[in-house]
Design brief:
- The chain is of the alpha/beta class.
- The protein is built from eleven helices and six strands.
Length: 214
């Protein structure tokens, strides 16, 4: 699996290269600034990109903007953001792209190497991997919008766990309820967000996207 990494801190960039290489990823390029990231993504068209938000030259949102531009040029390009900050405007734009294959993790909350590697693989496969804090901030910002008002508190909780990439069984275990109860909640969420029945595995991702895009 081919990966492009964008991280301006040399030690962390080298650590990501070594970590992903140890788990059989091929790091085709590792860059430290926004313009180089855009070039690397459009030229290599990797299976997944691991991107920091704040890169030179301005250290604001170069990484995320480069990733968004790359997804316009290469539709569906999987991007996993790994950052210390939640940039709500661009995060929402990234997650609202119906191409799928997106993730947003906070650096200081990544405590398990295995879970991080699993998140990279999940995003590469077209799924989603969102830190709970990211979900909370994005949902809280739009708490007064119509789609969220239609959901019950439990459905909002289930939606947040769905956004993290959890299966129904994993959500049931987290909330100490049955799989059947979670299945009912997810079906209610799909109905309230106007998502018709589908065999597409990314329907769970689209549930979050439908809300964020409202």
């Amino acid at each position: 699996m081919r990966v492009v990494i964008a991280e301006d801190l040399a030690l962390l960039r080298d650590g990501l290269i070594r970590l992903l290489t140890a788990y059989d990823f091929e790091v085709v390029e590792a860059v430290d600034n926004g313009p180089s990231l855009l070039r690397a993504l459009t030229s290599h068209r990797p299976d997944v990109a691991v991107v920091d938000v704040r890169l030179p030259p301005t250290f604001t949102d170069e990484g995320l903007q480069a990733a968004l531009e790359a997804r316009k040029r290469v539709p569906g390009l999987p991007v996993l953001v790994l950052s210390q900050h939640v940039e709500q405007l661009y995060a929402r734009e990234l997650l609202s792209d119906s191409g799928g294959g997106v993730g947003y993790l906070l650096k200081d909350r990544v405590m398990d190497v295995g879970q991080f590697v699993d998140a990279v693989r999940r995003v590469a496969g077209g799924g989603t991997a969102l830190d709970p804090d990211v979900v909370s901030q994005l949902l809280a910002r739009h708490a007064r919008e119509e789609p969220l008002q239609a959901l019950t508190p439990r459905e909002r909780e289930v939606l947040g766990l769905m956004a993290e990439g959890r299966s129904n069984a994993a959500i049931a275990g987290k909330l100490f309820v049955t799989d059947k109860a979670i299945s009912k909640h997810t079906n209610n969420i799909f109905a309230k967000l106007g998502l018709p029945p589908s065999e597409d595995d990314n329907r769970r991702v689209l549930a979050v996207i439908a809300y964020l895009n409202a």
